[in-house]
Amino acid sequence: QVQLVESGGGLVQAGGSLRLSCLASGRTFGSRAMGWFRQAPGKEREFVAAITWSGVMTYYADSVKGRFTISRVNANNTVYLQMNSLKPEDTAVYYCAADRTLSRAFAVRAATEYGYWGQGTQVTVSS
Question: In terms of C-beta density within 10 A (0-12 exposed, 13-18 middle, 19 or more buried), how is residue 89 classed?
Answer without folding.
Answer: exposed
